[in-house]
Amino acid sequence: MSNRLMGVAIFVIAALYLWQARGFQANFGDILGPSVFPTMIGLIALVLSASLVIAPSGSVSWPEPRRIARQAAALAVMGLYVLFLGQLGFPIATFGLIAALAVLMGGPVPQSLAVGAALSLGLFVLFDRLLGLPLDLLGSWFG
């Protein structure tokens, strides 16, 4: 039953992805247009997810509830990152994301905070300064 539920979930996501890919516009690209590659990926996901619904294989053993809770917490942290990236700015939001995920994976809090600080600043310098991709240093909450 788990395979079928996952197949339905992926099928719905792939269908929404295909619907979005229809209107993809770009001022550059190949002769076929910019939506060809996303459409191919979406169709493959649609077919493979349908195969999970029609003919699931094998048995599924669910992980223990504690592991599922950690995975749900990691998804929640990533969702919060997306929601607050504009308000907090890249370095602060990325620090929170990396530190929280490191703690969820079992890392000690001081080291998780240090890794979060180092990676968030390093990624900001890499993308904003070296690669020239503009990122907000401070979000809308800080000016």
How would you describe this protein?
With 143 residues, the protein is mainly α. The protein has two domains: 2-54; 65-130. 71% of the residues lie in helices and 0% in strands. The protein is built from five helices and no strands. The protein has helices at residues 2-22, 36-54, 65-88, 90-104, 109-130. The radius of gyration is 20 Å and the shape is flat.
What does the secondary structure layout of this molecule look like, with pairings?
Layout lengths: L1 H21 L13 H19 L10 H24 L1 H15 L4 H22 L13
Helix pairs in contact: 1-2, 3-4, 4-5
Attribute tags:
mainly alpha; 2 domains; 143 residues; single chain
The helix-and-strand class reads mainly alpha
Q: Which residues sit in consecutive blocks of at least 5 with pLDDT less than 50? A: none
**What would the principal axes of the Cα set say about the shape?**
flat
Mean pLDDT across the residues is: 85
Total number of helical segments? 5
Distance between the termini: 50 Å
User: Could you give the count of β-strands?
Assistant: 0
Q: Specify Rg, calculated over alpha carbons.
A: 20 Å
Total number of domains: 2
Strand count, sense and barrel status of the largest sheet are:
none
Q: Which H/E pattern describes the elements?
A: HHHHH
